Amino acid sequence: MEHAKEVGQLLEALVPFIPFDRMFQPPALKTPRLEYDFIQKAAQQIRQEIGVKNNAPLEFDQLIEKINAFEVILTPVFHGQGKP
Asked: Which of 25, 69, 26 has the alpha carbon at shortest distance from 46?
């Protein structure tokens, strides 16, 4: 828990350097849930917004454009055991 707090504080220091317009908030999911039906509906709606059919793959550029619209910041997470 202490390590997670420390990482959070370190990441918080980077926030001023994120190049997003602070006047508006990005789109957000209303009451997100980890339920299969909710995730399916959200994915279907996003695919519809992008203009991709249910059985067609998303193109890389389409995915990056949607990630940018939601102002997502991808943070790498390393799982597993470190050196003892």
From this structure: 69
- The residues spanned by each domain of the chain are 24-77
* Cα–Cα dist 77/79, whole Å: 6
Residue 5 vs residues 12, 13, 16, 76: alpha-carbon distances, Å: 10, 13, 19, 16
Helical spans, DSSP H, in 1-84: 2-12, 36-50, 60-69
Model pLDDT for residues 14-63, shown as the tens digit of each residue: 888 887 777 778 788 888 899 999 999 998 998 998 999 878 999 999 99
**How many other CB atoms are there within 10 angstroms of residue 62's CB atom?**
15
What tokens were used for 39?
């995730």
